[in-house]
Amino acid sequence: MADTQRFLVRFWGVRGSYPTPGPGTVRHGGNTSCIEVQAGSHTLILDAGSG
Description:
mainly beta
């Protein structure tokens, strides 16, 4: 039987390329795009922030 690996993608920020943190974005977030990808024991962070 083939060995399977778990593949997980998690979005940490999806507001866009310009950060807008503050009281108006607390509920849904105001951070720039950041994605975490996990495959087996490996983790990859893709940070597409403004700086």
